């Protein structure tokens, strides 16, 4: 007869309690969501303004496309205002209408967006 090793009867065993990881203190998620939503709203407003302004300076109707695309993220990566002005002037080189007013307004709006996002150190 084979030997059996027993550590207790099934009725004696108690299922071990699962170990629960310690929960980190909860952050105020509502503030983060509200902040991100406000930032997204501002960014969308900026993109809509850029679209409208480009349609004006390129004299396009709603159903027509203008020739360029201004990448706000690419513009934000530039370190100085002079670099941003040069970047925009290169994009707008073929525009028939004056662009200086558009460029200055866009720079101001981008700067406001940057301050809202906390990246004003650039």
Structure description:
This protein is mainly α and 122 residues long. It has one domain: DNA polymerase, domain 1 (Orthogonal Bundle), CATH 1.10.150. It has helices at residues 29-57, 72-77, 81-91, 100-117. The model has no long low-confidence stretch (mean pLDDT 81). Residues 1-28 are annotated as: Disordered. Keywords: Phosphoprotein, Protein phosphatase inhibitor. Residues 14-25 have a biased composition (Low complexity).
Low-confidence stretches: none
Order of helices and strands: HHHH
Mean pLDDT: 81
Q: What is the architecture at the second tier of CATH?
A: Orthogonal Bundle
Proportion in β-strands: under 5%
Structural class by sheet pairing and helices: mainly alpha
The tally of domains stands at: 1
CATH level-1 class: Mainly Alpha
Largest sheet: none
- Helical fraction equals 40-55%
**Overall geometry:** elongated
Tell how many strands the DSSP assignment holds. Answer: 0
Query: CA-to-CA gap between the ends?
Result: 82 Å
Classify the fold: give the CATH topology: DNA polymerase, domain 1
Helical segment tally?
4
